[in-house]
Amino acid sequence: MKKIVLLFLLITSITQINAQKVGILSGINISNMVMKNELFRIPYDNIYGFHIGALVDLKIKTRFSIGTGLLFNTKGCSIGKEPNNNVTRIYSLDIPITAKLLFPIDKDLALFAKAGGYLGCSIAGSIDKGDEWGGNSDVKWGSDKDSDLKRFDYGLTFGIGMQNKSVIFGLTYNIGLNNIGPDQGYLSNTTNNFFQISVGYMF
């Protein structure tokens, strides 16, 4: 987690010498996980959460900028049917790094598209085992057979949105590329996917 925070501080300190805007962002997360190997692919069910954090927008050209920030994200998935479903919740600090292109409509209103990636580090997590299995437990972080998940994540980010003066509305889809599952042979690849509906304000 220290590496994620230090990277964010480095990025923001570099942008101090350039034209930039800073802002805040929050909204809803719809997340799930996908487990796959060479034989099958299992998408788990969605769960709902939220995100909140700070944004930095570094202007390169009139219509082109580089965006980053530090976001607290909830991720995870649900397995099975209620009331016996198994719900995994992950709490993560993420740094998105995206290229954003503006499409002005008038003086104050513009549409935008963005693409890039994210780096993430999970800081906490829980597993609700449902009524049949009973009880909750904390996620065991690591890569051995006794662990539940790995802490570090990275992936691709794609988004569209609208900006009216300082107010931002955006839709973002994040595709995890890192295998966050423990090393267990044929169950070898588990990834995060999460969709974000966001509202933000740039100062």
Any chance you could write out the topology, listing elements then pairs?
Elements: H1 2-15, E1 20-36, E2 41-43, E3 47-59, E4 64-79, E5 86-104, E6 109-128, H2 130-133, E7 136-138, E8 152-164, E9 167-176, E10 189-202
Antiparallel strand pairs: 1-2, 1-3, 1-10, 3-4, 4-5, 5-6, 6-7, 6-8, 8-9, 9-10
Task: Report what the structure shows.
The chain has 203 residues and is mainly β. The chain has a single domain, classed as Beta Barrel (Porin). 9% of the residues lie in helices and 63% in strands. It contains two helices and ten strands. The protein has helices spanning 2-15, 130-133, and strands spanning 20-36, 41-43, 47-59, 64-79, 86-104, 109-128, 136-138, 152-164, 167-176, 189-202. An eight-stranded antiparallel beta barrel has the order 1-3-4-5-6-8-9-10. A hairpin with a 6-residue loop joins β4 (64-79) and β5. It starts with a helix and ends with a strand. The model has no long low-confidence stretch (mean pLDDT 86).
Give the key terms.
203 residues, mainly beta, Porin, eight-stranded antiparallel beta barrel
Mean pLDDT: 86
The helix-and-strand class reads mainly beta
Question: What is the fold-level CATH name, i.e. the topology?
Answer: Porin
Instruction: Note poorly predicted spans.
Output: none
State the end-to-end CA separation: 27 Å
| Order of neighbouring strands in the sheet with most strands | 1-3-4-5-6-8-9-10
Shape: elongated
Binned strand content: over 45%
CATH-derived architecture: Beta Barrel
What is the count of DSSP helices, taking H or I runs of 4+ residues?
A: 2
Output the helix-strand order. Answer: HEEEEEEHEEEE
Helix content: under 10%
E-strand count = 10
Overall tally of domains: 1
Largest sheet: 8 strands, antiparallel, barrel
Task: Determine Rg (CA atoms, Å).
Answer: 18 Å
